[in-house]
Design a protein that fits this description.
Helix content: 55-70%
Radius of gyration: 15 Å
Number of strands: 0
Structural class: mainly alpha
Strand content: under 5%
Distance between the termini: 22 Å
Length: about 90
């Protein structure tokens, strides 16, 4: 499933309710994944030690790649928790 601004997430990493759901279901899950990516980016930024590698010209791309890798594998599960609330708000 391609999401603008997010790495491609394989359909097998999506909950079955999203895979088999409507376009609104997919949009709500996309929003949840987008939020999770932003949060993970902040966590990765805080988690990595400060130094020449993270402060240099490749620091941000390295952090972005790490975050994208986590999201591409389905994230940490926050999107799954947020999805029901976003789906309910969209109705």
């Amino acid at each position: 499933m391609a999401i603008d601004g997010l790495p491609a997430v394989p359909a097998t990493a999506l909950p079955s309710t999203v895979r088999n759901g409507s376009d609104d279901d997919k949009q709500a899950y996309n929003a949840a994944l987008g939020f999770e990516q932003i949060l993970l980016g902040r966590l990765v930024d805080e988690m990595l030690p400060k130094g020449t590698l993270t402060d240099g010209p490749y620091g941000q791309p390295m952090k972005d790649a790490f975050t994208s890798g986590l999201i591409a594998d389905g994230g940490l599960g926050l999107a799954v928790q947020l999805y029901p609330s976003l789906k309910k708000d969209a109705s």
